[in-house]
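FW: tagging you since you asked about this chain on Friday. Here's the raw sequence from the shared folder, copied in full. Didn't touch anything.
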Amino acid sequence: MNMTIEEFSLGMTPDQYIDQMRTNQGAFRKILDSVVTPIEEQTYFSTLRKPLHIAVFTEDWCGDSLTCTPALFKLAIDTKNLEIRVFLRDHNTELAHNYLPEHRWGTVPVFVFFDKHMQEICRFIETAPEMVPILDTLDQKLLEEIQADID
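HL: got it, structure written out here
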């Protein structure tokens, strides 16, 4: 199911998202200010024939979002050819779930790239699918170690 332009327009701009942040706003701003967009990427995205729409599903408390979302925002600032709208996953669960594999329904961030007609081009999902079983195993081992320390 593709997002409509009307749904897309209801999302927050990057500035609106940053302004409403409560948990990691300071860290987010620091990271955003430190990102340097390589000239090759600036050139590539600045010369796109048509701008891209990017829907970002995230939450302020997410460490993965904190480490990668500022880079996307900075790319948009530096190239002026990317229109970003941000959706808080916990307030837009049905919409967010449309863009996630079933076994990763709560994952953030998710970046969904659309063309000017809102046809999906691609998605970036927080964790590569190949990494999910590895991370799940590590999580389980960590929980077991914590439990062993408690016992």
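FW: The mean pLDDT is 87.
HL: agreed, and Residues 132-150 form the longest helix (19 residues).
FW: great, closing this out.
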